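Q: What does the assembly look like in three dimensions?
Context provided by user:
Components: four
Sequences:
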Amino acid sequence: MVKVAVIGCGYWGPNLIRNFNELDNAEVAMISDLRPERLRTMSGKYPKMQVTVDHNEVLNNPDIDAVALATPVETHYPLASTAIKNGKSVFIEKPLTASVNEAEELIELAERHNQKLMVGHTFVYTGAVRKIKEFIDNRELGNINYFDSVRVNLGLFRPTVNVLWDLAPHDISIMDYLLGSEPEFVSAVGACHSGTGIENIAYITIHYPGNLLAHIHVNWLAPVKLRKVLISGTKKMIVYDDTEPDEKVKVYDKGIMINDDEDKMYSQMVEYRIGDMYAPKLDTSEALRTECGHFVDCIINDKKPITDGEAGLRVVKILQAAQLSMENNNERVDIRCIRKSPATLSSEKMSKSSTSSTSMAAV
Amino acid sequence: MVKVAVIGCGYWGPNLIRNFNELDNAEVAMISDLRPERLRTMSGKYPKMQVTVDHNEVLNNPDIDAVALATPVETHYPLASTAIKNGKSVFIEKPLTASVNEAEELIELAERHNQKLMVGHTFVYTGAVRKIKEFIDNRELGNINYFDSVRVNLGLFRPTVNVLWDLAPHDISIMDYLLGSEPEFVSAVGACHSGTGIENIAYITIHYPGNLLAHIHVNWLAPVKLRKVLISGTKKMIVYDDTEPDEKVKVYDKGIMINDDEDKMYSQMVEYRIGDMYAPKLDTSEALRTECGHFVDCIINDKKPITDGEAGLRVVKILQAAQLSMENNNERVDIRCIRKSPATLSSEKMSKSSTSSTSMAAV
Amino acid sequence: MVKVAVIGCGYWGPNLIRNFNELDNAEVAMISDLRPERLRTMSGKYPKMQVTVDHNEVLNNPDIDAVALATPVETHYPLASTAIKNGKSVFIEKPLTASVNEAEELIELAERHNQKLMVGHTFVYTGAVRKIKEFIDNRELGNINYFDSVRVNLGLFRPTVNVLWDLAPHDISIMDYLLGSEPEFVSAVGACHSGTGIENIAYITIHYPGNLLAHIHVNWLAPVKLRKVLISGTKKMIVYDDTEPDEKVKVYDKGIMINDDEDKMYSQMVEYRIGDMYAPKLDTSEALRTECGHFVDCIINDKKPITDGEAGLRVVKILQAAQLSMENNNERVDIRCIRKSPATLSSEKMSKSSTSSTSMAAV
Amino acid sequence: MVKVAVIGCGYWGPNLIRNFNELDNAEVAMISDLRPERLRTMSGKYPKMQVTVDHNEVLNNPDIDAVALATPVETHYPLASTAIKNGKSVFIEKPLTASVNEAEELIELAERHNQKLMVGHTFVYTGAVRKIKEFIDNRELGNINYFDSVRVNLGLFRPTVNVLWDLAPHDISIMDYLLGSEPEFVSAVGACHSGTGIENIAYITIHYPGNLLAHIHVNWLAPVKLRKVLISGTKKMIVYDDTEPDEKVKVYDKGIMINDDEDKMYSQMVEYRIGDMYAPKLDTSEALRTECGHFVDCIINDKKPITDGEAGLRVVKILQAAQLSMENNNERVDIRCIRKSPATLSSEKMSKSSTSSTSMAAV
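A: Here is the predicted structure of the complete assembly.
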């Protein structure tokens, strides 16, 4: 029985507590939050859990095997690094860290201390994304032409993090998992319409080798909820619409054929192909359950998590590059140069209140 | 009775012929196309029209009052400039010209020769766009925060023009009409997946003064047809979905309120407002009819067209800036510098077959 | 070259004229309508056609091989019977006739005079309905459990015919074609909300042998357009939504399994099965073109039309039974008793203005 | 603090327990179910509740102020009548009882013992239905022409109750609440496709005085989930689509106008009116919370419940009439004759296992 502690009982923490508690091979032994009333609420539901307002009690408790962090991003590195040094595996809500440097250090620490490091890229564990991955791996789509993701809503304006760091980790982690290769360049633009200086809309362009183009639109200030991904391959195309109650993934047997008959007119070089559409049956298990179960399974059976520290790092690298581009007039950023850059830029921008004692409880 | 000649009887020309012929105060007296079989087909439907394979017969015919061009973009300037010099008003299918220089010269020519110059920004004449314009002009939306337009489909791959020059004129002309101000910077990325070198997907970002951001996604290689515009204002927001049979325009009484109460937590600075939605009744007349009627009305009553040469120029300026950015790794282009730049870049890129004698008939 | 005459140039007649004219092996040689202005309009488009306000000129013209009727239903029988007796094949817009007796006589006449009799059940010639027929004939759905059709809209209130006779022929002809068997009982209810006495909403229930149930909702007074057919089979189910631009037909691999294990609880007798959905590619040719071509092909090659007089009779039988039930408080009508009944009831109800000289031109 | 006991902890009971527990002025003091494992599960969540497998302990407990029943319909009468006689108010999940006689007796008992009797017509407490009621009461729709409700899904096949008694109470209770008048006649058809004899599809027609027609389609065997209500008034029309995440209620300013100008052609008697559509903001509170709160409020402040015994009786009367019609070939049943009829028919049909000791726990 893996003993898990959850730090942060705000919006997302209770979901982690519920899911870890419903596993057969794990239990939430301890929770921590700066706000006593949050602890009381959770205690009412799960009376056996030990509670504390001091996360150090969690980090120093030798009975705890693993720590799950549902705290603001700027706290991920200090909390996780201490936990790992104290011999605990760590599950961190996305994004893994606030900078590439922090992510690289956590990966190195986890390896040295032989602890699991996993990031909560929850969409990777949905039936929809796993089914799309199958299609891509089976070469049913052919080569991928582009990946286009739109995630807009009238969403919660977060005070310490912009829409790029809040929403785009979902899209970037889906993209990273599905495409399975490293991009070359990133550029991004954003705008703030609330007067707070925190961007509420952003467009991110990611260039992969060859002519594979990816693009993400994230937005907190839209009147309707859209969560639509278009993936175009040389053989087939996919629309993944997460707002559909059923049939979230539709596979279209549509595309173009390149005509290499020289006698034909130039105007007929590209011809169409339109065939059937089908919507595969999807596993409808709760993704977070699958994810929590996978973390515990990796600990017990010494496996490498699907969304390990490296996956978290790749996402943070793109976020950091996008943030840099956004601050530099959409300038194209070479992703390979991100590794060495000091991560000062984002920490300022993202965590205006990071010194505030309340920040650790806000997620 | 205004005597109109239509040059180009390919895809779009027949629509112009039908609509000009159905007006009470105009008739199509002459048509021209390089392909005799296209002329025969049109003649069968409208036997009274004079036909010719030589557009010079049109341009030199003193009986013709106005010429409508439905020919490839690279022919717009030479045909229109001759027509204007010969004392004819000119209606040109979008985009107005292949370069800013050409557009400026046509405007200057039309003014000097006292002829009407109008560009076929057809969406501006739809009931939907005119209704949105009303809302914006009445200040119902407040200040505009952003304009986001998606126009994707499995569309016709055109051999001599990329998706930017083919589809984006629609979105840019709608944006130009609705926002009514001049942008500052443009950047764009695109990709080609057909091996022809012609981009089939492009993302264009347009920066306006203040924090007004516009973004356009045009795409010939998508499995589904999407034509959705989001417009967010400080008071209300609009979704304009042109694929809806009814209720194309929805106005949402939704938004955020900025809380300036200093006592409140930083986290509560931005609050929500969610109210009713409504879909106004729209004029469902055919936009092209309205547009053709407007052109004839401007000629007869000496009015300035809503989509005059200046409107055409503003759209070409953004297209040319976007093309320049796309060729320079998404680099931000200052729109004010476009005016003076020689338009060599796009003419090469866009009109590979512009010397071919067949190009004039292809639209 | 089959010489076709079209009688009735109101709403639908022009579509017949256009489609027959575009066939290679037929031409519209003559048209007739009581209103000279309708004839002038059509003549402007197709100058070679002979025109007349007197349909007897059509019926007596020995050069005419076939007559197509787009006139009000009460005129179908007199016009068609004369045409057949004069040695012409006849195509009649749905419904075939205003009564079962008339339909039976036309069938008998056509047989005796060796002429083709075909009814315009246009939906039978759509790619969607033909594809569904394929699935049913291939036994992919298993046995059909039910057929449910909804066809509602804010539609044209017709002055001489109720919504049952106006819209339900579409649904009944689709049902008749797909199910391929004869029903036993019909019942119907309707209501009039316009004060004219003409029903604008009706619900029709059709009982087939076994437990196959069919139901149709037709409605002229609905705020939205719905055209949705549900077909449930023991193996698979279909949703046919004619308002969808693409993917009109969706096949669901869903259903129930009957558990005959006696040990299992009664409560577990029925289990679920949920699999993939797929939307087959459909032939998108214009159904009316296919239909007109089929009529001409039947004449030239002496074939039996798919929607022959018998198909038309089966539909009229159900309409007449439904009308009878509607007038008798929803009483169940045995379809086998309809054959002998005099068709007096519907002729009064349906054709209040049938004596008016204008009625023949109204469709 | 009202002390509530919940009998039946199957599918719906836990929702009642949660909602009553979250009220400030009530608490669930006791729960009962025949299955000890259900009690254990609920006890784990709410440790303070007393639990018992014997519902008589509940009914005889003097500390209990009110009993909520989430048990099979055939148990409603015996449990509720005992509870009322023992001085407890009663909340009963829909439908109120298995027969009109039972409903009338409960109403009479509740009155005599001065206890509240309320039925769980939950949809009546949704923001959507309450908003529609407002529109109707404010005369915004004018006179109601028809009410059409479709509620289909691949739903749970229940072993002891058909789709009429399972799903139609929702539609009938919405209709009853909105229309606010008593119908005259009911007819219904159904079919069973599972071999169990339990109907899984039914169509119910309800005639109101005047020309107000209502129709309900309920179905457990459909491949897609539809929950759509059309309400047409002489002034406006409503579409209420419960599957929409937002904008569940749309009000259309559409309709017809009756032309009483005698000079106009008969064919122009009915003219169209098409205006704006709007979707009002809806209260999104959980309906069951509102409902449970209302029950407690009625007890504390001696108010008459909105969905009182009479409302429950009206729904049962229509259900019983529909059941009778369904068993008699769709024969029209006079609703006024239902009151006196012995309710033997439905009790046999509906509750095959009512003698089974397990039935009391199945809901």
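Follow-up: Residues 323 and 346 of chain C are 7 Å apart (CA to CA).
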